Amino acid sequence: MEELEGSSHTVNHFLGDNIAIEFGVRFLLNMIVIFILVRGIYYNRYKNKDFVFTFFLFNVVNFMICFLLSTAKLKMGFAFGLFAIFSIIRYRTVTVPVREMGYFFVCVAIGLINALTPLNMSHYELIIADVVLVALTFGLEHGLNIKHENFREIRYEKVELVVPERREEMIEDLRKRIGLPIHRVEILNVDFLRDVARIHAFYYSNENETKSAAYGGSDSDD
Description:
The chain is α+β, with helices and mostly antiparallel strands. Helices cover 60% and strands 14% of the residues. A hairpin with a 4-residue loop joins β2 and β3. α3 (49-69) runs parallel beside α5. The protein starts with a helix and ends with a strand.
């Protein structure tokens, strides 16, 4: 045990005296983790090149700022302040989906962790933290058997079926007409002068197909 602690102090002393080597070790570890997270997990599933660029850029910028200013004794307080600033800035020109915001925060956190966590060869807190974040992200993406409840906004002309007593008949009619496994409907309004109702027809699927749910718009089918 004493030999292990002695070697640990020697390595930490060596790395502490050589900033270039410490920077290289931390940066290499950070890039390996962020590559697995963004290229291996996110891009393989969503194929969005623009967000891949953004995730890498924010991670590296955050890592550089935290590492280069860590010698100014700002340490974790500064890092969390920077994290809070990034969380406030977000994007004002486009609407960022909730899932991408989750990846964004994880990428920023990984840069922060890899830049400021003390290196200690007898304890593997830094590597464990990186592995936990990547494994958790992968597990949430692929391990949970959860489906999205999507909906279609429809103008429905059979207003005689909108009454609660004929709801099952209405759902069956919608299944045949639009070819989706509708399981419930929501009546938004009924125009008896034009004999048309505006409804939301809900169905489950593996992907989030209802962009209106995330962005506040609506999809319409006649």
